[in-house]
Amino acid sequence: MALLLVALAACGRSPSNKETSVADQHKPQHSPEALTLGRIQPRTGGGIELSSEAFPDEGVIDLRHSAYGDNLSPPLHWTPVEGARAYAIVLEDPDAPMEKPFVHWMIWNIPGQVASLPEGVPNNATLVTPPGAIQGRNDNDSAGYFGPRPPQGHGLHHYHFQIFALDGPLGLHADADLRALTNAMQGRVIADGEMVGTYEAP
């Protein structure tokens, strides 16, 4: 039960007013291999350049894109991948005081001809724009994007925006978890890439 309370407090969801313990606040960071990007081998050595006009790679995420602010997903752009028929994006925080990275966003079946997402993608399981895209439930137990909300005094967190070019759409429902998404992408990824944003509780 104590572990559950700590995990929920990691990124803003807490069923009580209990503070995250000092011991949990200083748990070591997860290795990059704990992230989805490290668990899937793309078919080619080519990478995807992912960027955002909202913040540079390794830059600070603005308050408006955090769960302390407006909780709007940032605009994203990527280099098109030849042969890609769909894209998936996973956002994880490996610095959260829990046993695995905190999942902030999962969106898949972005059409292959699409090379960007606007700011503030609606938090719906199925999307009209981009057409056919599906958003899973994040670790805040809500659909779509849940912005950074690290615990007070927990220091700087790193948010990994990971993109995967796929050989076709995935047959997953919106209730699929990250494990199901990762398993479905195995052997289907043509290329991948990432950018990292940072955030610290105000």
Summarize the structure.
This protein has 202 residues and is of the alpha+beta class. The protein is built from 3 helices and 9 strands; from the N terminus they run ααββββββββαβ.
Main attributes of the structure:
202 residues; Phosphatidylethanolamine-binding Protein; six-stranded mixed sheet; 3 helices; 10% helix
Walk me through this protein's architecture.
The protein is of the alpha+beta class. It has a single domain (2-199), classed as PEBP-like (Phosphatidylethanolamine-binding Protein, Alpha-Beta Complex), CATH 3.90.280.10. It has helices at residues 2-10, 22-25, 178-185, and strands at residues 50-51, 59-60, 76-78, 86-93, 102-111, 116-117, 134-135, 157-166, 189-199. Strands 2-9-8-4-5-7 form a six-stranded mixed sheet, with no helix packed on it. A hairpin with an 8-residue loop joins strand 4 and strand 5 (102-111). The longest helix is centred in the N-terminal third of the chain and has 9 residues, at 2-10. The radius of gyration is 16 Å and the shape is globular. The two termini are 28 Å apart.
Instruction: Show unreliable segments.
Output: 1-31
Q: Report the structural category.
A: alpha+beta
CATH superfamily: PEBP-like
Return the CATH architecture. Answer: Alpha-Beta Complex
User: What pattern of helices and strands is seen along the backbone?
Assistant: HHEEEEEEEEHE
CATH class: Alpha Beta
Number of DSSP helical runs? 3
Q: What fraction, in percent, of the residue positions are helical?
A: 10-25%
> What is the residue-averaged pLDDT?
86
Q: How many structural domains?
A: 1
Roughly how many Å apart are the termini? Answer: 28 Å
Strand order, sheet with most strands: 2-9-8-4-5-7
The total of beta strands comes to 9
